[in-house]
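A favour, since you know our structure tokens better than I do. Just paste the record in under my message, thanks.
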Amino acid sequence: MTGGALGKVKELYEGHSDRAHRFRYGLLAFDVVTILFVIATSFTSHGPIVEIVDMIFGVCILADFAARLLIERNRLRFLIRPVTLADMVSIVSFLAPLAGEGLGFLRVVRTLRFLRTYHLMARLRQDIPFFRRYQDEFVAALNLLVFVFVMTGLVYATQHGRNPDIGNYADSLYFTVTALTTTGFGDITLQGSLGRLISVVVMIFGVTLFLRLAQVLFRPTKVRETCRSCGLSLHDRDAVHCKHCGALIHIETEGLE
């Protein structure tokens, strides 16, 4: 790839232009479509059409992976990142049918990475007032949703075909949610040592993420206005002084509600 072409790719992934933002939003949409496709096909038999679509998704993910690798300065560090390893598993899961389509759910980790990047987070705050006002709540809910999808995919990939209780994605989702909420009806259990380990991970990390979501939902509403003196970013909506250092802050407001 020539230097000019490489520069254009780098601008799409890391640039500030409207074109770059639209491109990254397109990648997010692609992630959502892929997830919905994997969910839908978990309920059906996989014929030639599904395998062809799998291949198309796999090639697209591979092209995205290759582009990111080319523009990365430290490629070794890039290759050992958890999200990069998840991408590798996703590529294999779509290009090799024997790998099991359930592993494709690991792609959802990439959605979390996109939303946590500075450029996209700033763009979301700028484009969507609702997101700007409820950013913490949105991110906490996304973290929990991502975890549920990832663990559901792992349950499906490791238990489907081996565990008679796991017949499709809905069964895996049902188990994940009941384990996460510690309801534990007992009608579906995971087999083997790996299954028990997955159950433990779902309960420990799932409860933690659920409590984090509850915390941001029920705490007093805050607004983001960085204090110029100490850097504190969250303040009460009607605050005049920073609670941390006492400096005056100027929060834009539309008046009393």
